[in-house]
Amino acid sequence: MSNRFDIQTTQLADLNVLVRKPLGDSRGYLERMFCVNELQDIFGARRIVQINHTLTQNKGTVRGMHFQYAPHAEMKFVSCLQGSVFDVVIDLRKGSPTFLQWHTELLSADNHKTLAIPEGFAHGFQTLTDNCEMLYLHTAAYAADSEAGLNPLDTKLSIPWPMPITEMSQRDAAHALITTGFEGVMP
Ligand SMILES: Cc1cn([C@H]2C[C@H](O)[C@@H](COP(=O)(O)OP(=O)(O)O[C@H]3O[C@@H](C)C(=O)[C@@H](O)[C@H]3O)O2)c(=O)[nH]c1=O
């Protein structure tokens, strides 16, 4: 039971959308970005060990689709603090009933949504406005050797990016395409 978040399930097993409930007054509002007590049902005994903040300057930029292999697999809580993004999450878990399916969600500074993405999912987004700021809470430290990505333009995924892609990192553009025998990752 949560007072500060409306916890919504999605069509992907174990992927939840949190709608934060700001407490407003004449000054503005206060909202919880995370709460270990109120999110106990989906967070369990994990720990937040790293918090990242990114700025993406130009509308149309794609970052993703990123994940870390076990034993550095991580749950992440992803929120947009400035601007708006078309956010995409793909279930890569071996044996999952929703394996290789994706979920898209508009995240914006105004809609107060946070994606609670469990271990074994890839994540990415396209910016819909200039100067988008994202906040990430991670349950595993960054491990460059365990980091991997899916190609955002892989036709096996057919992600419906809403606008022409204006920019991607060299690394993201070089992510391999999914091979026919790909059976998923261990969460
Ligand atoms: C993610 C990360 C990157 N880095 C470094 C690596 C690189 O030199 C620089 C920029 O990293 P990237 O290009 O991977 O940044 P970016 O493309 O923004 O990576 C992010 O993408 C989205 C989609 C996610 O889901 C995040 O978890 C994260 O993977 O920062 C860290 O030092 N610590 C970190 O935790």
From TrEMBL:
State the SUPFAM superfamilies in the record: RmlC-like cupins
Tell me its EC number(s), please. 5.1.3.13
Q: Name one Pfam family in it.
A: dTDP_sugar_isom
PANTHER family noted in UniProt: DTDP-6-DEOXY-D-GLUCOSE-3,5 EPIMERASE, THYMIDINE DIPHOSPHO-4-KETO-RHAMNOSE 3,5-EPIMERASE
User: By what name is this protein known?
Assistant: dTDP-4-dehydrorhamnose 3,5-epimerase
Q: What class of enzyme is it?
A: isomerase
Catalysed transformations (reactions): dTDP-4-dehydro-6-deoxy-alpha-D-glucose = dTDP-4-dehydro-beta-L-rhamnose
> Which segments does the entry list as coiled coil?
none
Functionally, this protein is described as follows:
Catalyzes the epimerization of the C3' and C5'positions of dTDP-6-deoxy-D-xylo-4-hexulose, forming dTDP-6-deoxy-L-lyxo-4-hexulose.
